[in-house]
Design a protein that fits this description.
224 residues, alpha/beta, six-stranded mixed beta sheet, five-stranded mixed beta sheet, 11 strands, tRNA (Adenosine(37)-N6)-threonylcarbamoyltransferase complex dimerization subunit type 1 TsaB, T6A_TsaB, Gcp-like_dom, ATPase_NBD
Length: 224
């Protein structure tokens, strides 16, 4: 099983090629630029295939982070993953982006993952350990999270959102990865598939409406 994993739900454009049978990450590419997901993703895919000396036709499974994340960046990864899977005639598996960050932490105690959702909000969820999420992903202002769950400040916290709002996530673990890792996403997907678990469909987990709006007073022009 040769997995191509990718995620564009955060400012990081991250891609990995993973040999699931040998439990080895063959190559990775990682760029952080919140405005260039569409430009960076395919070159990153080319880079990992070239580094590993493998061809796209050899890929048996595509893994993609489904968010939560901002509309535009998230769609880039999902559309690309589905295009690859369709072209290859292979499966595409969705994994919650927060789960990938949690898995990369390796923590064995309860903790929280938070990513930057912009608008002074974070996407977040609580975990019992690196493999076990105990709440649904949510999007909230950090102050509201603290008011509703005062214990949040006492939990270890990982992710760029936790770093950004350290006054709320006071247990932030700065020594742990703050960004998504496609290598961790692939390893987590491989573990779940080996246990016979059903992964998520490749559908975006937005949690809120896109920023684009129809202008006020917009007039529809109809032909005469």
């Amino acid at each position: 099983m040769l997995m191509l994993a990718l995620d564009t739900a955060t400012p990081a454009v991250t891609v990995a090629l993973h040999d699931a049978e040998g439990d080895r990450t063959l190559a990775t590419a990682h760029k952080v630029d919140a405005r260039r997901h569409g430009e960076l993703l395919l070159p990153c895919v080319d880079a990992v295939l070239g580094e590993a000396g493998r061809k796209l036709a050899e890929v048996t499974d595509v893994v993609v982070g489904v968010g939560p994340g901002p509309y535009t960046g998230l769609r880039v990864g999902l559309a690309t993953a589905e295009a690859f899977a369709a072209a290859l005639g292979q499966r595409v598996h969705g994994v919650c982006t927060l789960d990938g960050i949690a898995y990369a932490s390796g923590l064995t105690e309860p903790f929280v993952v938070a990513t930057d959702a912009r608008r002074k909000e974070v996407y977040w969820a609580r975990y019992a350990d690196a493999r076990t999420r105990v709440t649904d992903p949510a999007v909230d202002p950090p102050a509201e999270i603290e008011a509703a769950e005062p214990q949040i400040g006492r939990l270890p916290a990982v992710g760029a959102g936790a770093v950004l709002y350290e006054s709320v996530f006071r247990g932030v673990r700065r020594e742990l990865p703050a960004d998504q890792s496609a290598a961790a996403l692939a390893r987590l997907a491989a573990e779940r598939l080996a246990r016979g678990e059903e992964l998520l469909p490749p559908r975006p987990l937005y949690l809120r409406r896109p920023d684009a709006r129809v202008p006020a007073g917009y007039k529809v022009v109809t032909p005469r």
